[in-house]
Amino acid sequence: MDTTHNMMPAYYLMGAGVVGLLTVLTLHESARKPLHGSSPAVASEAEAHRLVKKLRSRSKQQAMQ
Question: Of 47, 62, 64, 65, which one has the greatest count of Cβ atoms within 10 A?
Answer without folding.
Answer: 47
